[in-house]
Task: inverse folding
């Protein structure tokens, strides 16, 4: 299956995904290997929800076998939302956007994306 041409896609569906980051990589947005679609991630916003403790966070694209990092161990200060990415990231078939935190219960993430078919 080939991924659709984003310039001539016929259907664009907007989504938001939200997650609490755990201490192992977990997919926030996944594109199934047989989806016949492309996921265009527009924004990634990360917030440390604790009042007093900084926390490291990593965000990566997984192709099913490897992780390719956008952030690796980035410290996020307590009670702040300092990490926002607004450059598009394209997830082809079989790709996932994943996150993990140094400490569970400290990091929340919101991802805005579109499905292009």
Result:
């Amino acid at each position: 299956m080939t991924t659709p041409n984003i310039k001539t896609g016929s259907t664009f569906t907007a989504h938001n995904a939200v997650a609490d980051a755990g201490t192992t990589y977990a997919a926030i947005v996944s594109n199934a290997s047989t989806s016949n679609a492309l996921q265009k991630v527009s924004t990634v916003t990360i917030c440390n929800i604790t009042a007093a403790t900084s926390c490291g966070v990593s965000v990566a694209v997984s192709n099913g076998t490897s992780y390719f990092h956008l952030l690796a161990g980035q410290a996020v200060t307590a009670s702040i939302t300092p990490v926002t990415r607004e450059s598009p990231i394209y997830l082809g078939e079989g790709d996932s956007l994943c996150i993990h935190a140094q400490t569970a219960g400290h990091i929340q993430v919101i991802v805005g994306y579109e499905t292009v078919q």
Q: What stands out?
A: The CA atoms of residues 25 and 100 lie 5 Å apart.
